[in-house]
Amino acid sequence: MTPRELVGTAEVPGGPPLRLFRRGADFMIVLERNELMSTRMSGSEVALGTMTCQRLAGRPAPRLLIGGYGMGFTLRAVLDLLGPEASVVVAELVPGIIGWARGPMASLTAGCLDDPRVTLETGDVADIIRRDRGCYDAILLDVDNGPDGLTRPANDGIYSTRGIEAAWRALRPGGILAVWSAAPDAPFARRLASAGFSVDEVRVKARDNGKGATHVIWFARRD
């Protein structure tokens, strides 16, 4: 097997550093011993974008907020489906991830960060959600391993009752909060419903060929 090559390290505010590895043509982002994401397993990240856009069909000039650029799979998925009048705000906490996107993974990025529909904000998506009330048709969150935070303790607040209520206020009527998770989380699903969202829990495969681990996406609609 081809050995992994360490490409770089990125500091995470309030958490341990991330490391980018390359094995042949594949990249993987690793936190300590946990592989957070890789180019081999992008199916559920793509589904987060495509399934959200399907639920927004017919909305003129939709405005989306994506929390967590990662490897850009979700961003590229929504850009492929949205029209020229749409706008997408991408919040990425870790500047090093954007450095990797524009550097060693530039061919994978494929210019999506320079799309005129995209605004990049370096910072905590939770701050943007609290700041921008009634601004978004959809908020897509993939900032950690799911509601059971792994990357840094502060991420837990995004998935708390208070964080969910802030997302409700940031959405327009009929807007969608879409949340990616590596595993089911019944208490989180109940918190979504208790906040007044209509919740659709969808299970998707990690790989785009329908194989691999099963991940979870919650689509919570503000009625």
Task: Explain briefly what this protein structure is.
By secondary structure, this protein is an alpha/beta fold. Helix content is 27%, strand content 35%.
Give the ordered list of helices and strands: EEEEHEHEHHEHEHEHEE
Stretches where pLDDT is under 50 for at least 5 consecutive residues are: none
Structural class: alpha/beta
Give the helix proportion (percent range): 25-40%
Report the count of strand segments. Answer: 11
- The multimeric state of the shown protein is single chain
**What is the first-to-last residue Cα distance?**
51 Å
Tally of individual helices = 7
**Rg, Cα atoms, Å:** 16 Å
The overall pLDDT average reads: 93
What gross morphology would you assign?
globular
Strand content: 35-45%
The biggest beta sheet, please?
A: 7 strands, mixed
State the strand order across the main sheet: 7-6-5-8-9-11-10
